[in-house]
Amino acid sequence: MFDFNPNARRRAYLLAVSLAALATAAPAFGQSEDRTADKGEAQRPRVSNAKPVAPNATVNLLNLMVKRKLLTQDEADSLIQQADTEAYVSRQAAKDARVKADEAAKVASEAASAANPPGTRHVTYVPEVVKRQIRDELKKEVMAKAQKENWASPGAYPEWAQRIRFYGDVRSRYHGSFFPKGNAQADAINFNAINSGSPYDLSSVTNPYNWPTYNSTQDRNQVRLRARLGMEADLAYGFNAGIRVATGESNSPVSTNQTQGGSGSNFSKYSIWLDRGYLKYEAFERDIVLSAGRFDNPFWSPTDLVWYRELAFDGFAAQGRYSVTPDFSVFGVAGAFPIFNTDFNAGTNLAIEQSKFPSHDRWLFGAQLGFAQRFAPVSEFRFATAIYDFQNVQGQTSETCYVANSSNGCNTDLTRPLFAQKGNTYMSLRNLGSLGTSNNFGAELQYQYFGLVQKYRPLVVSGSLDLGEFHPFHIVLDGEFVWNTAFNRSLAMNGVGLTSLPGNVGGYVYNNRGPTSDGTLGAYDGGDKGWMGRVTVGNREIKHLGDWNVHAGYKYLESDATLDAFADSDFGLGGTNLKGYFMGANLGLSDNVWTSVRWLSANSIAGLPYAVDVLIVDLNAKF
Questions:
Q1: From 162's CA, which of 48, 181, 259, 315 has a CA 20 to 30 Å away?
Q2: Which domain of life is it from (predicted)?
């Protein structure tokens, strides 16, 4: 360390001057001043008058400078005295510091001895933060072992049971249906009621009653309940399984609602149905998902134009996703789904025709390809195109069939849909033959089933734009377009080769026919396209108290754009051949408890007039 006090600078300066003077004026050390040495004369030793050499190099140097008359004796003595004084002060300060340090160490030792009993061992000091970290790590290790071996919490579920998760939800609903004046009640034929039961007798002689129809004139107020309970189990190596049960008035694929006061009334108990049951395999952080059984809709569908939002799919599906960049990914879905499997013992009971009917299984094959682009931390655009091919859903005209009563069957009866809502175009299936006088040569006992006129291969284009600049509030624009690429208008316009029978309206098509001036049914008026647009503002999900969103949109879905069986069951009271607007709002009442209100106003597109307004008020809770 350098000493920057003035005295030190003065001494350094004097030393530098002295050394320079000695280098130029003094003879070399070890040589005599007597010049006679140069003459080779022998020198005699003599006693020196110089002062004794001091042990300090600085003092010796000052004495030499006095001898050379570079300093006076007084100046040299003054410098030596000053140096001695400073050295003494430094020594005394160091001594004091040592004494104080020894005293502090003694006090600390006495305090430690008093605090620690004999036998205590001293270790290196460990900071409190490090102690806390070590304690937490040890606690985690011990608790993990305790939980695994089940000795920390006797009575707790074993490890395998902890991989099972239960979940569920409950919804109470008010459902109001309001019909304006002018609806044509006779045109709302309930083909599903006929096809799911005994065949319908078209003869006005043996069956003077009107067709079974949907209500289209009387307002209704209903209270409904939906309750669901599910279980998911994590298995090894990426496998997991799940089941879910739910309420419901029937095995309808598009509703788990139970109308309270129905199903026997008088507070009768309600049925429970198997709603989900599946096995899944997930790999590469869920970038690949394989599903088998009965599971949620595997296809991305932002609206319910084609698929009802609660619809379950039976069969097999493969889903894949690949991230091209952190903000751009592509995805794809493919699957095969059985819609109907023919009864193994399907056949006729007619005495003259003891045979089994051929299989007429129905399948849905589907594929979807799309992408998702994130252009802000909370904003995204998603787009996808899908093609769905419904196999063997078109009705087939039977061979000549002789039916004596409602229990007799014909060879194409199983081509009828066993579940439907309303909207698709229907034709009669049975080519009834004459039994002579038993059925008045075919004019009576006309027991009929009805099948779909069209094939269905809808192409669906879906898009969604999520604008989250006002996060947690979002603006979401959803839209879908559907076109039935297998639609053939000539089948409905020109007939499908059915034999014209007494009592058959036109012999082939029974609905979606426009009115005429005299009130009879006119030409076919159905269609093959549909679209829907919706805007939603607010929170994306309703999870907490105060969360909210509102939405509004418009839907247009022609009669044969897609199968009516799987479309939304609320808009227009279900099915296709509907157009109109809808709006709604959701509000969080607590964590996982919310209420919602929706108003849906629908009108028919083709056929005779039909309109209905629906008000839905829900109270929802999930766990």
A1: 315
A2: Bacteria
Nearest to 14 by CA among 89, 91, 78: 78
| Beta carbons within 10 angstroms of residue 221's beta carbon | 10
pLDDT of residue 204: 66
Interatomic CA distance for residues 515 and 5, integer angstroms:
118
Sequence-ordered list of residues with C-beta below 8 angstroms from that of 258, at least 6 positions apart, any chain:
224, 225, 226, 247, 248, 249, 270, 271
- Domain map of the chain by residue range? 1-23+54-106, 179-218+284-622
- CA 321 centroid distance within chain: 13
**What pLDDT is attached to residue 3?**
46
The 10s digit of each residue's pLDDT in 115-155 is 566 665 655 667 777 778 888 888 788 777 776 666 656 66
So what's the pLDDT on residue 121? 60
**pLDDT at position 62:** 73
Q: Cα–Cα distance between 305 and 296 in angstroms, integer?
A: 17
| Measured distance CA(595)–CA(119) in Å, rounded | 70
Report the pLDDT value the prediction gives residue 317, as an integer from 0 to 100: 98
Burial of 256 (0-12, 13-18, 19+ CB in 10 A): buried
Residues 280, 281, 283, 288, Cα dihedral to 10° = -60
Neighbours of 111 (CB within 10 A): 10
Are 564 and 428 in contact, with CB atoms under 8 Å apart? Answer: no
496 Cβ neighbours under 8 A, 6+ residues apart? 397, 427, 453, 508
pLDDT of residue 355: 62
Cis omega before residue 55 (within 30°)? Answer: no
C-alpha dihedral, 120 to 124 to 125 to 128, nearest 10°: -100
Query: Which is nearest to 448 in space by CA: 493, 397, 394?
Result: 397
Q: What's residue 123's pLDDT?
A: 58
Query: CA–CA separation, 122 vs 130, rounded Å?
Result: 18
Q: Which two tokens stand for residue 580?
A: 């109109």
Residue 320 DSSP SS3: strand
CB 272 within 8 A of CB 246: yes
Report CA Rg, the chain: 50
Q: pTM for this one?
A: 0.72
Place of tokens 């208008």: 489
- State the Cα–Cα distance between residues 252 and 570, nearest whole angstrom: 13
| pLDDT for position 622 | 95
Tokens of 600: 């849906």
Q: Longest Cα pair distance anywhere in the chain, in angstroms?
A: 178
DSSP helix/strand/coil, 354 = coil
Show Cβ contacts of residue 522 under 8 Å, excluding neighbours closer than 6 positions.
513, 514, 515, 516
Tokens read off for 387: 């093609």
Are 186 and 256 within 8 A, CB to CB?
Answer: no
